[in-house]
Write a structure and sequence with these properties.
Blueprint lengths: L28 H19 L4 E2 L2 E2 L1 E4 L4 E4 L2 E3 L4 H22 L2 H6 L1 H17 L2 H9 L4 H27 L4 H10 L4 H21 L1 H5 L4 H4 L10 E4 L1 H5 L13 H4 L20 H12 L7 E4 L1 H4 L9 H22 L4 E7 L6 E2 L4 E12 L5 E8 L3 E4 L5 E3 L4 E11 L7 E11 L4 E11 L3
Antiparallel strand pairs: 1-2, 3-4, 4-5, 6-7, 8-10, 9-10, 10-14, 11-13, 11-15, 12-14, 15-16
Helix pairs in contact: 2-15, 4-6, 6-8
């Protein structure tokens, strides 16, 4: 390790068309935390499709059947807005976390980071550390190089296929998907997406790697507006590193922080959009500083205010607003799920037949009723009237609707003209779900119109 003070080279911006970055291995407290996070989220991703609740896959977006099974809740197309609100919560959480600790999502939770890190470690296991990998890359083609690359790529393909299979399991029941693959009967769009996701995973995590963060991912470009002077991020203490008031510089230009960086940047050049806040440079620099009997905080998580000797405010207006928004939307989703009745219906006034007076003085209005059964079982329903002194003309006393079916049928309402004092009158249709010891109702208001 070079212990002399050398002039640091000027920062050269990262270019997208460049040679491969050989990342040196580093282990420290932040890397332990990152890998614990990686294992936690990877386990959820791979295990969740295999969990069964009431005989059903815990998470299954069954697009052909237009059903979305999420734990014990089945959402139908009419309730997709709940998934939309869930995605909105995810977006707000990204804003919330960015305002607190910068790109913590990128460094600790993003699938791109998680699986790229796994692929890098596999490569290190097969080919050796960064120095050996550089020498290996310059080796001429021969039996040893072909053998090692075959081993590395085979492991990568197996993991990529596992990722593709697991991802597909969220849309096709995993038992059915597994059976089709074993029999060689996977075809059509299922085969296309399985091959596409497998191939994309292999290319992205094995070769494209950090370029995904630079080119297609927009977060690195706009994350600057989500942070403020109180946001924690990976920072380099320039005054301490270069020496202040005649003190000895803490930075010895060992470049350890650069060679462990997965995006190939130099954190000493200040905040850069390529930085994913993985803290590898913090762990690397801490090793060097401890050997020099210095405090291991030359590179650390800190805010702009903290670096300038001011107090970092964790609780501040934007953080509070983000938290309130997430809480309100989450409460709304939970309320809608808790109050679901398992069915819905809509009443549409027949516009081609406004009203008609019969010879006996009765007024007739015609309506179209649409009943959606959002439960997993076939159901029986009854239709009643409220707030009108009239007669409901319906073919059957009870209406049978199959699971997931939308039943559309016409109904007629008859009423005596003398019961009304105005031309347009509001009343209510009541749809009752017939259960053993319980009646669940849904109300829908509409108009009863008198003829001119």
């Amino acid at each position: 390790m070079n212990t002399t003070t050398e002039k640091k080279e000027p920062y050269r911006p990262v270019t997208y068309a460049r040679s491969k970055i050989f990342v040196k291995h580093i282990w420290g407290k932040f890397q332990k935390l990152r890998w614990a996070t990686f294992i936690f989220f990877s386990t959820i991703f791979f295990v969740l499709p295999w969990i069964k609740l009431n005989g059903k896959q815990a998470i299954l977006f069954d697009i052909p059947a237009r059903k979305f099974h999420i734990l014990n809740v089945t959402l139908w197309p009419q309730e997709v807005y709940l998934l939309t609100f869930t995605l909105i919560i995810g977006a707000i959480f990204l804003f919330f976390s960015s305002s607190l600790v910068g790109r913590v999502w990128c460094g600790y939770m993003c699938p791109q980071t998680v699986f790229t890190s796994v692929f890098i470690e596999i490569e290190r296991f097969v080919l050796g550390d960064s120095i050996r990998q550089k020498k290996f890359a310059k080796m001429p083609w021969g039996p040893e190089k072909i053998f090692k690359l075959t081993i590395r790529n085979t492991i990568w393909i197996v993991i990529s296929a596992l990722i593709g299979f697991t991802f597909m399991s969220y849309f096709v029941p995993n038992a059915e998907l597994f059976d089709l693959i074993l029999k060689g009967e996977l075809s059509g769009w299922a085969l296309f997406w399985f091959m596409f996701i497998t191939g994309f995973s292999m290319f992205d995590f094995g070769f494209f790697r950090e370029q995904f963060c630079f080119v297609p991912c927009p977060y690195g470009r706009f994350q600057g507006v989500l942070k403020d002077k109180n946001s924690l991020e990976v920072t380099y203490d320039k005054e301490k590193g270069e020496g202040k008031n005649g003190e000895k510089p803490a930075c010895i230009n060992c470049n350890y922080c650069v060679i462990v960086c997965p995006t190939g940047i130099d954190i000493r050049n200040g905040s850069q959009f390529e930085c994913i806040n993985c803290a590898r440079c913090i762990d690397a620099c801490a090793v060097v500083q401890v050997k020099q009997k210095r405090s291991p905080d030359l590179i650390r998580y800190d805010s702009h205010n903290g670096m300038n000797g001011q107090k970092t405010q964790i609780i501040r207006p934007r953080v509070i607003v983000y938290f309130i928004l997430m809480s309100l939307i989450a409460s709304f989703i939970l309320f809608k799920i808790a109050t679901r009745k398992g069915f819905d219906f809509e009443v549409i006034k027949d516009r081609n037949f406004i009203s008609q007076k019969l010879p006996n003085g009765k007024i007739i209005n015609i309506y179209s009723l649409k009943i959606l059964n959002m439960s997993e079982e076939d159901q029986q329903y009854k239709v009643k009237l409220k707030n009108i002194d009239g007669e409901l003309v319906l073919g059957n006393d009870a209406i049978a609707v199959k699971s997931g079916e939308v039943r559309d049928f016409g109904v007629t309402v008859l009423a005596d003209e003398k019961n009304f004092t105005q031309k347009i009158n509001r009343f209510t249709f009541i749809l009752q779900k017939i259960e053993q010891n319980n009646i669940i109702e849904e109300h829908e208001d509409t108009n009863f119109v008198l003829p001119n």
